[in-house]
Amino acid sequence: MNRHKWFTSGITLLIAVMILAGCGAPSTGGSKDTATSTSTGSKVLTIANATDIESFDPHNNNNTASEAVLVNVFDYLLKNDSQQKKVPGLATSWEKVNDTTWRFHLREGVTFHNGDPFTAEDVKYTIERVAKDNTLKQNSYFKNIKEVKVVDEHTADIITDGPDPLLLNRLSKMGAGILPSKYIEKNGIEAFLKNPIGTGPYKFSQWIKDDRVVLVKNDKYYEGQPKWDQVVFRSIPEASTRVSELLAGSIDIASGIPSTDIERIQGEDGKKIVKAPIQRVLQLILRQSQGSVTADSKVREAIDLAIDKKGIVDSIAGGAGIVTRTSVTPGNFGADPSLYEKTLYDPTKAKELLKQAGYTGEGPALTLSVSSIYKEYAEVVAAMLNKEGFKIKLDVLEPSAFSERYSSKSFKEMFMIGIGNSLFDASNNYNRYLLEEAKGETDYNNPKVEKLLQHALTNLDTASREKEYQQVQQILAEDRPAVYLFQMEGIYGTGNGVNFQPRSDEMFYAEDITPAK
């Protein structure tokens, strides 16, 4: 009982406020153009997310919310099925030629949305663009690609600068969306961004920033007629508003449902809740730059020990989460089970660590930045830290502002973020702690970790590579460049007009969402 005593007052009050907020939020309407079916008989799928896409450039986005939309417009050479197994996309087959070369046999008869044929030249243009332009947000995932050779119109070789154990993983994630080379070379990239063209089942129709993306079906899609006439992705940052829109019938699927609204949605006729574990781990990223308060390892450890992660899961998350001391969860290559479903909570020791760090009177002052979508979690974390002697300034940002701050690496001592794993590999989570990648964000610098991570980048021996990442996780658990809170669970509300099964990668493949009969 002592473990969660703190929650009996503060958290209960916060949950009550959240419930009232959910009940009182007004509907913004829009049912006329966002219902599952309209008076004209068109099939319209409407999905509400907390954040908007960053852009229609699949090479210059860096969040899951963007990829979840763009996968409907841009195809990859290969893709992940719902079980994360590699299946054909624009490539029908592939084989390893040698340690640095993979050959891809391309699908014939595919056209872009403007009618241009898809060929190996488009693969060359696309992959070399993201690999060579270091201003693109996806460049770090592809910069080890040396060259794409066109073997013939429907065959391409991708050559890497040294062995790459993750090439197939890279080619099935955002950053590998195939672009129309002829169209862009003729009209320029700016024209393309205003009128994006892919080979996917849905074509661009409209983007009203911070409001909605509208897609229409591609009648000439190579896998046949798409299921929906129109797919609308609405950006609704406030969870209470997403819930109200769902209950009003204005949207078909609402993501990020708060635990406090689950019972309310399930009590409505024709509405239901669907859940699935996702790759996302909610965490605090801590700056270790010289002169930062969090450069002191004792302060970082005190932050870790002062937060009751299990209490947060049980209360704010409604049990929809699993505590962890690693961000590489089961199902990802390199996971360390010894750190999963484990948590540390010792507020007494946290206070003692602050004393050892020299804070005998007033505790350290820290800024905690967070996107508004995680505001409730940040408020509870801040309250816990304040209770143990910290002085936390909470900096809540709108999702777009948070994304800009994240890209510019301009947070102060600490920021909260939910990080997924589009590669399903430990490298996706831990390459941010390579010396060059960490520069300006955490400024983390551990030579042993650097050596292990650098070697794992080209290690084709699966067994030893896995051990390298497990060793890295054990070191990071002590160094704490991040404090991991819990693995999240995706909670979605749906209407009775759709059949929807959430994916662990959080993608919204409209073709996998079917109209209810």
Would you mind describing this structure in some detail?
- By secondary structure, the protein is an alpha+beta fold.
- The chain has helices spanning 10-24, 31-34, 64-70, 120-132, 139-142, 167-170, 181-187, 189-194, 239-248, 262-266, 297-306, 309-315, 347-356, 375-387, 399-407, 426-430, 435-438, 447-456, 462-479; strands spanning 44-49, 78-80, 86-88, 91-98, 101-106, 145-152, 155-160, 202-208, 212-217, 230-235, 253-254, 271-286, 321-323, 365-371, 391-397, 414-419, 482-495, 498-499, 514-515.
- Strand 8 (202-208) and strand 9 (212-217) form a beta hairpin.
- Helix 1 (10-24) packs across helix 9, helix 11 packs antiparallel against helix 13 (347-356) and helix 18 (447-456) packs antiparallel against helix 19.
- The longest helix is centred in the C-terminal third of the chain and has 18 residues, at 462-479.
- Belongs to the bacterial solute-binding protein 5 family.
- Pfam families: SBP_bac_5.
List the helices and strands and how they pair.
Blueprint: H1 10-24, H2 31-34, E1 44-49, H3 64-70, E2 78-80, E3 86-88, E4 91-98, E5 101-106, H4 120-132, H5 139-142, E6 145-152, E7 155-160, H6 167-170, H7 181-187, H8 189-194, E8 202-208, E9 212-217, E10 230-235, H9 239-248, E11 253-254, H10 262-266, E12 271-286, H11 297-306, H12 309-315, E13 321-323, H13 347-356, E14 365-371, H14 375-387, E15 391-397, H15 399-407, E16 414-419, H16 426-430, H17 435-438, H18 447-456, H19 462-479, E17 482-495, E18 498-499, E19 514-515
Parallel strand pairs: 1-10, 1-11, 14-15, 14-16
Antiparallel strand pairs: 2-3, 4-5, 5-7, 6-7, 8-9, 9-10, 11-17, 12-16, 12-17, 13-17, 18-19
Helix pairs in contact: 1-9, 11-13, 18-19
Protein name: Peptide ABC transporter substrate-binding protein
GO molecular function: peptide transmembrane transporter activity
Family: Belongs to the bacterial solute-binding protein 5 family.
